[in-house]
Amino acid sequence: MYTQEEISGIVRQYMASLVFPAHPRELFSPIEYSLEEGGKRLRPTLLLMACNLFSEQPREALPAAAAVEIFHNFTLLHDDIMDNAEVRRGKPSVHRRWGTNAAILSGDAMMIYAYTLLEQCDPGLLPALLETFNRMAMEVCEGQQYDMDFEHRESVSEEEYLNMIRLKTSALLAGSARLGALIGGADGESLDKLERFATQLGLAFQLQDDLLDTYGDSQTLGKAIGGDILEGKKTYLMIRALALANATQRTTLLTTSHDESLSAPEKIMRIRALYDRFGIARLTEQAISHHMSLALEALEALRIDKERTAPLKALAQGLMKRNK
Amino acid sequence: MYTQEEISGIVRQYMASLVFPAHPRELFSPIEYSLEEGGKRLRPTLLLMACNLFSEQPREALPAAAAVEIFHNFTLLHDDIMDNAEVRRGKPSVHRRWGTNAAILSGDAMMIYAYTLLEQCDPGLLPALLETFNRMAMEVCEGQQYDMDFEHRESVSEEEYLNMIRLKTSALLAGSARLGALIGGADGESLDKLERFATQLGLAFQLQDDLLDTYGDSQTLGKAIGGDILEGKKTYLMIRALALANATQRTTLLTTSHDESLSAPEKIMRIRALYDRFGIARLTEQAISHHMSLALEALEALRIDKERTAPLKALAQGLMKRNK
Fold first, then answer.
1. Contact flag B119-A134 (C-beta cutoff 8 Å)
2. Which of A8, A113, B124, B134 has the most C-beta neighbours closer than 10 Å?
3. Which residues of B touch A82 (CB under 8 A)?
4. Has domain A4-186 been given CATH number 3.40.910.10?
5. Is residue A201 within 8 Å of residue A295, measured between CB atoms?
6. Do B145 and A115 touch (CB under 8 A)?
7. Within B24-170, where are the H helices?
8. Are the Cβ atoms of B138 and A113 closer than 8 angstroms?
9. What ipTM was reported for this prediction?
10. Global confidence as pTM
């Protein structure tokens, strides 16, 4: 059995060993750039840990792990075009550096490259792995579409929001856990429990993302606080606040982000004042704890020695301590 | 054995039977729109015919055939964003109708949907089918990148151009033929010959596209002639002309398309006058015939009854008679 640090090291080494064709330069350079060190490599680490629960050869899961990481980075690349995001992990986004056309095409090639890595998996497992990968990939697209849809809607229910982040964020974690466990040789019941673990972990993870964007510490976060408020995003915080607001407060919540008479700090202060009045930070922390508990319950329900599940538990708890 | 019309009918019926999820609407509507009747369905027809060479059950190849057709339409969707094309098959392009973001994301979902169809193939063949599909898909991206690169280059050799269209156009035809033949149970030698047939057919097909854009009949073509000239595209015609031009003629070839003192008909007339002086239409026709001969040679080299290869031969010859 491998420790979290060992798994993480194996993943980083493998990702760094991937070699892309030299030509055409403009197609593969943005891919190499997107995959440079800097990400958390959370999904491939989770995938290898899930495999290691059932098998002493987690390295066999490396191609699938890299496939998921590359698919994830492909979604970031295309999302950055759609969101017109200038920066990714402290560097110019691909479409800012190479242009939109190159970013679209390199993203496409990244997705194909992810599928190409699946060729290296056990042929007998390929049907199940492909099915899992495809479902996961389609769910991520569905989640991104709902996220874009919500921008144009006045009201989004908490349930709709959770379903959206289940697709946009949890699907990749659940898919990673399932792929790893499939490669490790898990039975059907274990697959379902691990998927539930990763789904709930993903929900907790995304809600924490929402919370940190408004209530995090800009110093430790390495970015300005309040970006979601300034963009008028319908985050979990906003949705809970809208549900508790009266008509006047509702108007403030919905119109402040595009009120040109206000400075950015004023906008953030105004929205945060309402969040504070409703106790939104505490409500969000409760929701995070709730989903985190469900995740750990699913993990503990596995018929596996506690010591084997310890690295996954540590990974989950480590994520909740993160500040970026 | 099925006739060309029967195969074509089976393909159309299957494509029309595909059902996409109802939600999110904005994700799947553009996909349904892209796949509406109107295309030639050349690639899935070729795929089923290749299968039917070796098997009496070409319907087994339908999911792979639809996967290729959907992948092809995905490339058109993303290419239309990159080329800023307003119209596709006489209808507004997806990005014109739904916006760029929806077009990027729907295209991504289309590609994933294509891979999802592969799940329905014989599990034992899946490794070979996935490998072929991935290689084909990556080559198409490489071809599109070279095509974009060439726009910014003064000189492109005939060899470089042929390599670009081998990737951008032939790869999909070669991949289709190989996938169909794999499903039909072809041996390695037959696979290679069929791939060669489809590659050469693709080259002839693309060169004819270039020729028709400048020398076709706008009436039968259903679009204005000279689009490539007005866009300053480095087509086969332009590349052959540049190779034969002196310094003055070269300047005319390279600068006419963006000369603001000229009307569109004047630009077309000026470039065509040079093409005519160099006999470019005849040179292109010779190249088309050359690649068509190589295609038919590869087909005839198959150790299969002539009557079985007749539909593929008819398909190829029909393509050469097309005027759009």
1. yes
2. A113
3. 101, 104-105
4. no
5. yes
6. no
7. 25-35, 42-52, 62-82, 94-98, 100-118, 126-151, 158-165
8. yes
9. 0.95
10. 0.96
Tens digits of pLDDT across chain B (324 residues): 999 999 999 999 999 999 999 999 999 999 999 999 777 899 999 999 999 999 999 999 999 999 999 999 999 999 999 989 898 888 999 999 999 999 999 999 999 999 999 999 999 999 999 999 999 999 999 999 999 999 888 889 999 999 999 999 999 999 999 999 999 999 999 999 999 999 999 999 999 999 999 999 877 776 778 999 999 999 999 999 999 999 999 999 999 999 999 999 999 999 999 999 999 999 999 999 999 999 999 999 999 999 999 999 999 999 888 654
Fold classification of B197-324 is: Farnesyl Diphosphate Synthase (1.10.600)
Handedness of CA A157, A163, A167, A171 (dihedral sign): positive
Please report which helix (H) or strand (E) contains residue B87, including its range: strand B87-88
- Domain limits of chain A? 4-186
Counted residue by residue, chain B has a size of 324
Q: Which residues of A touch B (CB under 8 A)?
A: 21, 23-24, 26-27, 78, 81-82, 101-102, 104-105, 107-109, 111-113, 115-116, 118-119, 123, 126-127, 130-131, 133-134, 137-138, 141-142, 144-146, 148-149
B105–A148 CB contact, under 8 Å: yes
